[in-house]
Amino acid sequence: MNEMSADLLELLVCPSCHTKLAWDYESAELACDGCSLAYPVREGIPILLVDQARQG
Q1: What is the pLDDT, as a whole number, of residue 40?
Q2: CA-to-CA distance for 5 and 36, rounded, in angstroms?
Q3: Residue 44 domain-assigned (yes or no)
């Protein structure tokens, strides 16, 4: 997946700190500026589980 829909990004927030998520084009994942977690996107589906996130 190369992009995340802008409409979807408007709805998504970090499950840990509730900050809006941003699409990281380079690593193809959702990044949180609030708590520095990065959430994977698998087959176009964002995996918004804290235990699946990595420190970004």
Answers
A1: 96
A2: 21
A3: yes
